[in-house]
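pasting for the record
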Amino acid sequence: YLSASRSDGTLQDIAGPLANLLALRIGIDDEVRFIDLLSRVDKALEDGERYGVVPFEKVVLAVNPGKDMSRTALFDVLYQYEQAGQDWKEIELNHGLGKYDFNLLVVEGETIEIFLSYNSLYFQESRISRLLGHYLELISSALREPEQLVSLLGYVTGEEKAALLATGEEVGYPKDKTITELFEFQAAAHGDRTAVVFEEKQLSYQELNGLANQLGHYLRINYQVQADDLVGICLERSEWMLVAILGILKSGGAYVPVDPAYPQERIAYMLSDSACKVVIDEAELARFRSSLADYSMENPAPVSGAEDLAYVIYTSGSTGLPKGCAVTHGSLFNYINWANAYYFKGKQDQPDFGLYTSLSFDLTVTSIFCCLTLGGKLLIYEQNRDISSILSHSFSLDSGLNSIKLTPSHINMLEYLDIGETNISCVIVGGEEVSIHHVEILKKISPSLIIYNEYGPTEATVGCIVQELELNSAVLIGKPIANTRIYILGEGSELNPVGITGEICIAGAGLARGYLHNAALTAEKFVVNPFETGKRMYRTGDLGRWLENGNIVYLGRKDNQVKIRGYRVELGEIEESLRSYPGIEGSVVTVRGTADRELVAYVVSKEELNISAIRTHLSQTLPDYMLPAYFVQLSQIPLNTNGKVNRHALPAPEGLDLDTGAAYVAAVTVTEVALVEIWQKLLGRKKVGIKDSFFDLGGHSLKAMRLLSELRREFEIRIVLKDIFEHPVLEDLGQLIDQSQGAVFTAIPQVEPQADYPLSSSQYRLWILSQFTESSIAYNMPGVFVFEGV
């Protein structure tokens, strides 16, 4: 506030402006009305004017004696106001120079004029123009509704509001069709084309469609499956998994993926909660296959419509139990229809994808349905093949794949793999936050890769915002996809304009029906859309802001939900599982890291705990990706003044971990000593013994990849990721390394010279393996084969 300084009579005749800066502190809270705020300002001014004669520099020295001379001392925003005027006129920008970053001057005349100078290092002219428009709109709102809470006063202009409500292009599509009809069109048009490959088995579109039809009839006849009925799938990956998905959809039912690798308690809960009419597991599949001839191969008459369910995927739940997200055919069709046009329209080749993740992860929805509705080939990787081998093969020329969908965690693994030439041209990244480093890793594989960042929760059917990523450019989540509305809302559900952080909310054709058998949670998250009568809106809990070009920046979460290896994880579910362990009185779970995110569990107990026992307990109900990497025992959980957990006061886990339960035995051999050093560095441990398990010390698949890289560099051996999972104890891994180092390298038998060698590298590897019985050949296998003729 700029205070006149002529109160002293001796100053009245002095020419020129005399003024002194008066710093006022005025608190604004959510529950204050505008009219009450005016009274609060009046009182602050009245109380402050008694100090108006105190030179501002003396105030600065008292409050901020160590001030930075390059910056203003107490504040960066200066507001100058003379006397109230009669009306308002259009604001003009003042491009002059000023001492403060933001200097607003209000001058009384016949009209009220407003002048603003600002620091162009921090503000763009377009942003300042918007801010001034917001200022006028805010004052207008306050004059219209002086009794209104300040937090609810509107400041977005009518023009801005129209633009914010018009996000997402409206694209027409046949709303009465389902995904199965798109697949059946491909089966009729390209029946002989290969649809699915699994190991040595191939199914053409005609064969896959015929088997799916038979399963559809089987389910209708034997289990009376109708529209909206749920059918579980609990199978390991094979061509029969695809038959099951398509057969269920053709029967009219919706599929519920249940990963057989999940703990039995979690599987039992999912099946109980979903109340599936039938579960297609190995036993049910065997019954169906034994009676194939009894069922027609013709397409069943469709009974499902756009409003009926297509699938239910279970995600982590904050209450300690997973929740089923129910997605309809209409939502699925809108996403696939958009994805096919956006990612693959105009491409000469059909999209050929690999299927390598759990069916319980909706990343598979893109790979399966984009592929099979455009006539592509789906390569299914066997269940127990390690992820490093899968990723290496996916990017190799041998795979024949041209498209892949993966998570940033998968990209982190690629950094440690030898990737040569690749056929992959389209990379869709989703599930976690992407960084520029991830883009660099992919572009290093091939500069011609087209990389898409696809954002979207399961509740919005896989993806709802997309952006193509380039090197040396900011990583954004992009713009809304077709038939999708994105709103960024403030705490009072008001529209936030460009540049203002708020919660990302989603509306449009992609919304799921809600949460299965959980009306309360559905009502909490799928709320009435305040901007479109009769429509719903999903509150994601994600934070973001609009950019001027219509793109969105992702800024993290507003709650305790995180993403680990692409999977959504509610920290509350892990905390509930920890509290069910005998002796644990309290628990808090946090996440650390950016590229390689890890869970840290803090527990309170009067008893001495150990990691192995707790991990075993958690693994009975939680999948592998939800197991914490670190466990820290505390005497009490630190709280803030409001009685809530003070997460900032939780100690770093290094050196504080619980005992693993394994007796400490020091390293003896040269190999063990080297392994201890590698493990300590990789796992952040100060003390590692040869009886310790890699995974009990916080290791996981990504760290195992790094360990593999270190082992190959340190010992010059060729071991695979599977060896680390089979030999997680340091002593056992050391013995394996010693054995492989001592293995005898045997010469490969000579081959009669030929004009050429029509063998691929993979075929030649299989031939070499067939010539030997010693297991050592697996470690001595050449990494690269060069065929040069005679």
